[in-house]
Amino acid sequence: MGQTPSSPLADCLNAVCNGRDNCVAFPGTPLYQISWVDRYNLDIEVEPIAVTRPETAEDVSGFVKCAAANNVKVQAKSGGHSYANYGLGGEDGALVVDLRNFQHFSIDPNTWQATFGAGHKLDEVTEKLHENGKRAISHGTCPGVGIGGHATIGGLGPESRMWGSCLDHVIGVEVVTADGSIVHASETENSDLFFALKGAGAGFGIVTSFVMKTRPEPGRVVQYSYSVTFAKHEDLGPVFRQWQELVMDPDLDRRFGTEFYMHELGVIISGTFYGTDEEFQATGIPDRIPKGKISVVIDDWMAVITKHAEEAALSLSSISTAFTARSLAFRREDKISPETITSLMNYIDDADRGTLVWVLIFDATGGAISDVPTNATAYSHRDKVMFCQGYGVGIPTLNQHTKDFVSGIVNTIQNGAANTLTTYPGYVDPALTNPQESYWGPNINALRAIKSQWDPNDIFHNPQSVRPAAVAA
């Protein structure tokens, strides 16, 4: 393991590990950055004070107590896909609690409630639910994302318009709090903490286990894909306007999820309809989707999950790279105007992009997500119907031209908007001026008050997490 440092924190962490291998590592450990820290965004350097790999909730409790006693901040890491490396603290000196060992899983065949550890990745959750009764939950498309962060920040995916977000499936958790207590939280037990964990979890505790309601897998699924190559992005304007009209429709069938994926050579529009082809045709959606090189596949649930994973691989997926990311969220009243769409496409054509590897993704939301009151969970974007995320990837390093290009996309859209646009913390944007207000909107004051009760010393901290009311400024 290399040289083990001697300090009150190191001694405390080693005591919790009690001689176990692969339990804790420090900056002096060989291959510390590669094997233990494992940054997702290689453009953001961060060195944790230590990385731990607990095996039990009691281990997590011990590590949190060590950090609190030594005035060290703590962040949990599940899949580690934070765009700003917030699962590693987001800045130097944090204690990382890597949950990879939390792999327990069970399902009650009477209630179909599933209980599983926070170390699972999305593909593992999907597979285990399928193997245990052909059950399912709503979640995103990237298979390597960890459920621990996904289900405590939102968790959006193609099924979200039909079933709600991933966190809307959570009905209970086991969580380690800032004083090291291991508690349960639900609608009836520690309900204030449960409210905060469902949308702002990184600032309130470390969830070690989830209890989720599950649903029967859909039967037939229609997977739609349209792709086209353009000489100039300005030619995409009419295509995007047509797609945006579709997703802004308040009567859009909730069984339909869709994404507009713009890249260097053109666009891919994907759609997933959870039903039969006859039902899909009856919605009228096929007549409203932009036409071009079309591929329609009618398949089952697991095949479509695999297809989504393949599409996710076209963007950032699970590969560590140097990249920049910006994002925005839209209500219906924030629909991008034709003039702004034209400005955006012209900007993309004329800008020095600094890379050939960039994407601008718009995806539809709303539907069942909007059925839940805004103040029912920390997740505040119940009124949104569309998100966008811009990414620029450096090969091998990221340059300022690419950062400016992606920021210019966001600025062009914002400059054409009548209101200040916010965004979702799952699409973390480290360039935000007022991140807490942007991420949690009308729920931020309630969250600050809850933070003051459960974590007054701000033990669970990253650069954009919720602060206690007393130090909110």
TrEMBL record:
Residue ranges of every copy of the FAD-binding PCMH-type domain listed in the record: 44-217
Keywords associated with the record: FAD, Flavoprotein, Oxidoreductase
Keyword Oxidoreductase: yes
Signal peptide: none
SUPFAM superfamilies to which the protein is assigned, alphabetical: FAD-binding/transporter-associated domain-like
GO molecular function, one term: FAD binding
InterPro entries, alphabetized: BBE, FAD-bd_PCMH, FAD-bd_PCMH-like_sf, FAD-bd_PCMH_sub2, FAD-linked_Oxidoreductase, Oxid_FAD_bind_N, Oxy_OxRdtase_FAD_BS
Entry annotated with the keyword Transcription: no
Recorded family membership: Belongs to the oxygen-dependent FAD-linked oxidoreductase family.
Protein name as it appears in the record: FAD-binding PCMH-type domain-containing protein
